[in-house]
Amino acid sequence: LRIPKLFDLRADPFEAGVVYCGTSRGNFYGSRDAGATWEPLASGPAFPGSYVTALLADSAVPGRLWAAVAGELSGGRVVVSDDRGATWRTLLQSSGAVTTRALALAPGEPRMLAAGGDDGVRISPDGGKSWRKVEVGSLPGVPASAFVNDLKADLFDADTVYAALDDHKSGDFR
What we know:
Layout: E1 6-11, E2 19-23, E3 28-31, E4 39-40, E5 50-57, E6 65-71, E7 75-81, E8 89-93, E9 100-105, E10 113-117, E11 120-124, E12 132-134, E13 147-153, E14 161-166
Antiparallel strand pairs: 1-2, 2-3, 3-4, 5-6, 6-7, 7-8, 9-10, 10-11, 11-12, 13-14
């Protein structure tokens, strides 16, 4: 099986040798032999016209995958699967001009989920049921033109998420 360009890769936290990946064609693949062979997780294209920008394997719920996908016409989305990628449901949909690039999932309950991209950070205190937006330009010392490249949840404080920002459009900021 030939897989298109990989955009993200995650090991299953419950099964040794099980690995998942998201691709430049909006599809997801899985391996049960530590990457020696790969199979599509769904029978058809998961998100045609989009690409996978982030993928998380939930460390609390077996078989649950979280992903961010983006498409030129469809915008950014945060999606979740409870069956190892066979089916997906959308939790957040951004406008066509917005790319969602990063995801972070905090440990504990309720699940704090954060999504970052062109329009800042969106935070869900309840695993994707409700969202609030944090504009990047509202953060001290950060220009409004910056965007989120990566997010990491604090492993000890479920109310803290760290964001890596990029402002290459106007030159890196200090």
